[in-house]
Each structure stands twice: as C-alpha cells, then as structure tokens.
Design goal:
Number of domains: 2
Strand order of the largest sheet: 4-3-5
CATH class of the largest domain: Alpha Beta
Structural class: alpha+beta
Largest sheet: 3 strands, antiparallel
Strand content: 5-15%
Order of helices and strands: HEHHHEHEEE
Length: 168
C-alpha cells in the first residue's frame, strides 16, 4: 500500500466527498466519525491495492469483474439499509440511525459464496424471466432499479418510496 494515499488529509478529503455525494443522493454516512474515517481508510487501501474501492469489510478477489458487486457503494447497500438500518460495513446508515432513533445491529452477509456467485456476463437480450428482482420505476423522474423493494428515497430526484411503481 502507498502509505501517502491513506494520510489523514486524504481520508478527510474522501470523507467530505462521500458525505456530499451521499447527502445529495438521499443517503447518509455513519455519524460515528472515527468509524467512518476508519472505513474510508479501508476504501483507500483497497483502491490502492486492487485499483477499485472494494468494501473494506469484505474479501475482494482482486479481479474487478468478480468484485463489481462489492465496489462501494456495493450492490447490497440499499437492501441492508432498508432492512437493518445500515449497510454491511456500516459506512452508510438510514435516517433513523443517523438521528439516533434506531441502533444498527449485526448485518448478515448477502453476498453469495464465490463458487455459487452469479457472474456478470455482459450478455445482451436478458429476458424478464432472467431477472432476479422486480424492476421499480420512480414516477417522478423515471429512475429504474431492480431490487426486492423500491429505495426509501430516489437517488436522482429524492422522491419518497411511495412514488415508485413496479415496472416489471
């Protein structure tokens, strides 16, 4: 690891950028600043080591195409926020956790074990029957997402969950 990259100044700069991006998209970083900075230092370390900011709480393979699902923010963040109030590593938290109205507990790993993980093939022409999750559409801006439930807040226009309708 290039130690200069994970200096407190670099961690603080990335923290400010992630905080700004999160809040602009309707997400929240963990209010525990020490934990948040520790996790951000892990993102910096992983980006230096692998070339991409893999989740600091998961084992990355070092092959980007195999780790696309755990590049921060990972594919599992929204489902974890909805169900547990925090993502797996707790970098992102729900509004209730941020305000101190809810305590985020232990979050089970959603990522399938490697031998059984679905690989991203880049195939074209995926049919509806191939979709693992329903597709939700924001009725305000048209944003689409495929997941078990629609997001609490649209990352594009900030519309609330009730403004989403099942698209497919």
């Amino acid at each position: 690891m290039n130690e200069e990259k994970a200096t407190p100044v670099h961690v603080e700069r990335l923290h400010e950028r992630l905080l700004s991006e999160a809040e602009a998209s309707g997400y929240h970083l963990n209010p525990d600043i020490d934990l948040t900075r520790f996790l951000i230092a892990g993102l910096i370390t992983n980006e230096d080591k692998y070339g991409y900011p893999a989740c600091p709480c998961r084992l990355a393979s070092g092959v980007k195409s195999e780790d696309l699902d755990i590049i921060c923010p990972c594919d599992y963040r929204d489902a974890d926020l909805d169900e547990y109030g925090a993502c797996y590593c707790a970098l992102y938290v729900s509004e209730e956790v941020r305000r101190g109205e809810k305590v985020a507990g232990s979050i089970p790993e959603r990522r399938p074990p490697f031998p059984h993980r679905e690989r991203r093939t880049g195939r074209r022409g995926v049919s509806v029957k191939d979709l693992r999750f329903p597709v939700w559409r924001c009725s305000v801006c048209g944003y689409l997402c495929a997941r078990e439930r629609p997001p609490a807040v649209c990352p594009i226009c900030k519309a609330r969950q009730e403004r989403f309708t099942r698209f497919i």
